Amino acid sequence: MDDLNTVDAIIQKAIKNELFPGAALGIVTESGVTIKKFYGRHTFVPWSRPVDQSSLFDLASLTKPLCTALLVALLVQDQSLSLKQTISDFFPSLTPDKKDITIYHLLTHSSGLDAWMPLYKDIQQRHLKSTNHRLNLACQHILARPLLYKTGTKSVYSDLGFILLAQIIQKVSDDSLWSLAQKKLFFPLKLNNIGSFHEKPPSLTYSVPTGFCPVRNRICWGEVNDLNAWSICSLSGHAGLYSNLGDIIGLLKAIMAGYSGQEIDDFPINPLTIRLFLTNRSKHKSINWGLGFDRPSHKGSTCGEFFSRNSIGHLGYTGTSFWMDLEAKLFVIFLSARTFPFDNTKDKTLMKNFRITLHNEIRKILDSTL
After folding, report:
1. In whole angstroms, what is the distance from residue 248 CA to residue 66 CA?
2. pLDDT in tens, 330-364
3. C-alpha count within 13 angstroms, C-beta hemisphere, residue 177
4. Whole-model pTM?
5. Which residue of 40, 100, 290, 334 sits 20 to 30 Å from the alpha carbon of 93, by its own alpha carbon?
6. Does domain 5-369 have CATH number 3.40.710.10?
7. Cis bond upstream, residue 46 (ω within 30)
8. Burial code of 119-135, b = ≥16 C-beta within 10 A, e = fewer?
């Protein structure tokens, strides 16, 4: 399947229009065909490093499904945690409006929590040395804020819920989020290029910069783009991972194999649990989220027109994404630094349209050749 010229042209045009300086594309089909393609450079200057198999991208919110949700799945499988468990078990001083929030609500973005708040402002002012103290302070601020809507009535995509999940995972496992992820998920699968910006800083040679940060007054290069993750100084549930293309392919292959019923010796989450997390559907039509995984929206989904409704995926703010069609048993990964050199609203709209066009073209080619 070499005829991806039209896909190449779409990506090259986006680079020419300076939507991002470079990108990595991964495609895996049901038959096991694996395609890896690389485009452009780490920055727009012609002497910067070309994007290749060693390039490390800030995964941003792909951290949510590919780390935090998988660790919750593992703890649920081990009966150390229940999806129906309320967060009052872990945060005893809750206000009454939050007493009904469960692990399920946090995973499906239906807790009632706001989408985001500038936690970094107070955390940075405190000059706390301990990452645990920083995470504790973040959770205190989150839980002190009134709910945006009644728990379980709709979904609003929220970083804050996944920061709470990071704290819950650490309390249940008595281990840091990164340490647990490394030991249980990434190391067994030999995914040595997935790392945490704080606990395992990437080499600047291979790290793709994500752009200028006005708060830090510098280019984010070798450090996490997300300000709240930066201030917490550890893998914080909602963001903080980086990876090359190959390791994301390896992790998604393990997830797809689990969904297909295959027991994998090096992957600790069994097929039954994987299927639970990938196929969950809420009874409420206004809640479209799976357990930590996004689903195609009814109109204008970034996976385009040809991925089935039985698909799961996620986007990352920096310009990363994956979409996995569970019916066709194929997935597409796209990694870039959309936020380089500057983040702006116009690029967000252009990036959404680019993603739709890209996935539509890939599916047209795959569906005509497979």
Report:
1. 9
2. 999 999 999 999 998 888 999 999 999 999 999 99
3. 34
4. 0.97
5. 290
6. yes
7. no
8. bbeebeeeebeebeebb
